[in-house]
Task: inverse folding
């Protein structure tokens, strides 16, 4: 049995979710993608605060928040987000 065949349904579901998320993020302009990756911890598993993200990317907090809002707005417009919607709560 291969490693892929031994995957639990949860990890297979997570892998599918990650694949869909990457596809959606790939449609964003680079700065929007980087902001979301940093804020949500998609690269290192550690979500960052707005100030940390802004500093890391050389932005002001206000600029970072506007870019983040624009990115979420674009994501909501890019078609079928079934399975991702619960992860997009920006409140």
Result:
């Amino acid at each position: 049995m291969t490693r892929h065949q031994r995957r639990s349904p949860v990890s297979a579901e997570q892998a599918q979710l990650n694949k869909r998320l990457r596809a959606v993020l790939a449609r964003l302009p680079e700065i929007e993608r980087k902001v979301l990756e940093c804020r949500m911890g998609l690269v290192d598993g550690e979500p960052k605060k707005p100030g940390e993200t802004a500093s890391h990317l050389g932005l002001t907090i206000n600029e970072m928040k506007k870019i983040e809002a624009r990115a979420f707005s674009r994501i909501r417009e890019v078609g079928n987000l079934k399975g991702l919607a619960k992860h997009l709560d920006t409140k």
